[in-house]
């Protein structure tokens, strides 16, 4: 297992840690490093360390009440966007956008069970 400093870490606040773990491991290829359900889980995919903080975690409690959500999202690169979309739709994952094409490639947005955005991106 890699040391934590070898990862880029992102914290997502989630309503249900187990549902988030199930979503990221089942649909997006993450593996569990640490799980202290229902408070917290640490999942990884490549160099990305995703910290899933439930309502009772210190990470969630540190966020001031009323803080608006941003439009940030994790960005996952895939080789075949159409195949990923098909696989995820067959798994019951809803999408938040249609496929968008731009100068760098194609992308689509989906959300985890708590509404945190995930961008799937296929480079040109």
Characteristic terms for this protein:
124 residues; four-stranded mixed sheet; single chain; alpha/beta; 2,3-Dihydroxybiphenyl 1,2-Dioxygenase, domain 1
Model description:
- This protein has 124 residues and is of the alpha/beta class.
- It has a single domain, classed as 2,3-Dihydroxybiphenyl 1,2-Dioxygenase, domain 1 (Roll).
- Helix content is 20%, strand content 37%.
- A hairpin with a 5-residue loop joins strand 7 and strand 8.
CATH architecture designation: Roll
End-to-end Cα distance: 32 Å
What's the total helix number? Answer: 3
Largest sheet strand order: 1-4-3-2
Secondary structure blueprint with pairings:
Blueprint lengths: L7 E6 L3 H11 L3 E6 L3 E6 L2 E6 L4 H4 L11 E5 L3 H10 L9 E3 L2 E7 L5 E7 L1
Parallel strand pairs: 1-4, 5-8
Antiparallel strand pairs: 2-3, 3-4, 6-7, 7-8
Brief overview, please?
The chain is an alpha/beta fold and 124 residues long. The protein has helices spanning 17-27, 58-61, 81-90; strands at 8-13, 31-36, 40-45, 48-53, 73-77, 100-102, 105-111, 117-123. The chain has a single domain, classed as 2,3-Dihydroxybiphenyl 1,2-Dioxygenase, domain 1 (Roll).
């Amino acid at each position: 297992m890699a040391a934590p400093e070898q990862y880029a870490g992102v914290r997502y606040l989630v309503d249900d840690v187990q549902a988030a773990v199930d979503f990221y491991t089942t649909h997006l290829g993450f593996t569990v490093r640490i799980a202290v359900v229902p408070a917290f889980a640490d999942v990884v995919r490549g160099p990305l360390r995703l910290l899933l903080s439930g309502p009772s975690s210190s990470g969630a409690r540190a966020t001031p009440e009323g803080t608006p959500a941003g439009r940030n999202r994790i960005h996952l690169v895939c080789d075949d966007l159409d195949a990923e979309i098909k696989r995820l739709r067959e798994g019951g994952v809803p999408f938040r956008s249609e496929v968008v094409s731009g100068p760098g490639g194609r992308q689509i947005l989906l959300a985890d069970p708590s509404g945190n955005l995930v961008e799937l991106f296929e480079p040109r």
